[in-house]
Design brief:
Number of strands: 14
Bound molecules: zinc ion
Helix content: 25-40%
Distance between the termini: 45 Å
Strand order of the largest sheet: 2-6-7-11-10
Keywords: Membrane, Metal-binding, Mitochondrion, Mitochondrion outer membrane, Transferase, Transmembrane, Transmembrane helix, Ubl conjugation pathway, Zinc, Zinc-finger
Number of helices: 5
Radius of gyration: 40 Å
Pfam families: GIDE, zf-C3HC4_3
Order of helices and strands: HEHEEEEEEEHEEEEHEHE
Shape: elongated
Catalytic activity: S-ubiquitinyl-[E2 ubiquitin-conjugating enzyme]-L-cysteine + [acceptor protein]-L-lysine = [E2 ubiquitin-conjugating enzyme]-L-cysteine + N(6)-ubiquitinyl-[acceptor protein]-L-lysine
Oligomer: single chain
Subcellular location: Mitochondrion outer membrane
Structural class: alpha+beta
EC number: 2.3.2.27
């Protein structure tokens, strides 16, 4: 790992940010494609001429179109379980449990909810426009964006006695109650559908999920709302992808900076070593006449044999030879214990 410029932790960070960036970019591309298809989709008026338009289209099929109309059930509509006289074509009944759960980490009670029961049902329905022209909607439950209207909402408060309270403190869970909701796409409501429009053999128009994998939309909010929401999501995913890519680039830059600093420090050390060697070689030439038994007067205080050859900075002590300086366990001056920030060779002439 010594030569490798990126550490394991950095490698993990880099890998994670790159993988997330790739994933977010992939989602963004998909969303972008949906937005582009929505922008290109023709908005066809729902009237008597629509069947003729399809009749003259090859294959009697339009891949991706926007149709707006009023909801009309084909047979018997669904009746609201809670609101008298309310009828619809899509019904969603949800029972949710709300409770407080003790969070040991934050040392507080936090809200938590869980779906106890969910039932979605639908009956066949048409979108009706001018001239009593109608388009049958197939597979409405596969559509995205189908936010039905809430027709009933009731919270049933949990009631408990003294022993329950003790039990709650022991288990760390306090039930708050149950929320019962009923959502419905009502008969007569305006609905916008985006999907594949076909003309069947019996001359009925049908809107179905696109066979090319594009997103099927049914929305009570209208075409513009669907388009804006998809565009907003695309922008969000792109921002997330860029953020992760930036984080990855940051990790790389950090590793490169550290690698560069280490290279520079190594080069500096190398230069010093060479310089001290050159100096030592010069002094040996001078010492040729000596018998070599007596230590020099300015001998290194550590090895007592080599001449002192380093100036330790910032304290400025001249007390050791270069090889002893290199062998110091900590970069502190052996005389005064001040940290050594730099060492320069001492030239004696
Ligand atoms: Zn020495
Ligand atoms: Zn010192």
């Amino acid at each position: 790992m010594e030569d490798f410029p990126v550490s394991t932790v950095e490698m993990v960070c880099l890998g994670t940010s790159m993988a997330l960036s790739g994933l977010f970019f992939y989602i963004y591309r998909k969303k972008r494609k949906t937005v582009d298809k929505l922008n290109e989709a023709p908005r066809l008026p729902l009237d008597g001429k629509l069947a003729d338009i399809l009749n003259s289209t090859p294959g009697k099929c339009l891949q991706y179109v926007v149709i707006e109309g009023a909801v009309q059930p084909v047979g018997e509509p669904l009746r609201s379980q809670f609101q008298e006289g309310t009828v619809g074509v899509v019904q969603k009944l949800v029972l949710k449990e709300h409770k407080l759960v003790w969070n040991g980490l934050a040392r507080t009670w936090t809200d938590s909810e869980r779906i106890l029961h969910e039932r979605v049902s639908s009956v066949p329905f048409d979108l009706v426009g001018a001239d009593r022209a109608a388009v049958r909607v197939l597979c409405p439950l596969e559509a995205s964006g189908l936010d039905a209207e809430i027709v009933h909402e009731k919270f049933h408060q949990a009631s408990y006695g003294f022993t329950d309270i003790i039990g709650q403190y022991l288990s760390g869970e306090k039930p708050k109650g149950q929320l019962e909701t009923e959502e419905m796409v009502k008969v007569g409501a305006a609905l916008t559908g985006v999907g594949e429009l076909i003309l069947d053999a019996d001359r009925t128009l049908k809107l179905r999920p696109p066979t090319d994998g594009s997103t099927f939309f049914l929305s009570p909010a209208g075409y513009e709302a669907v388009r804006l929401e998809q565009e907003g999501q695309a922008t969000l995913w792109r921002a997330l992808a860029s953020l992760c890519a930036l984080a990855g680039a940051g990790v790389l830059l950090w590793a490169a900076r550290r690698h560069y600093r280490r290279l520079r420090a190594e080069r500096e050390q190398d230069r010093l070593r060479r310089e001290f060697k050159r100096m030592a070689a010069g002094e040996e030439d001078d010492d040729d006449d000596d018998d070599g038994a007596e230590p020099p007067a300015n001998a290194c205080i550590i090895c007592m044999s080599e001449p002192r050859s380093c100036v330790l900075l910032d304290c400025g002590h001249v007390c050791c030879c270069y090889s002893c300086f290199q062998a110091l366990p900590h970069p502190t001056c052996p005389v005064c214990r001040q940290p050594i920030r730099r060492v320069v060779p001492l030239y004696q002439s």
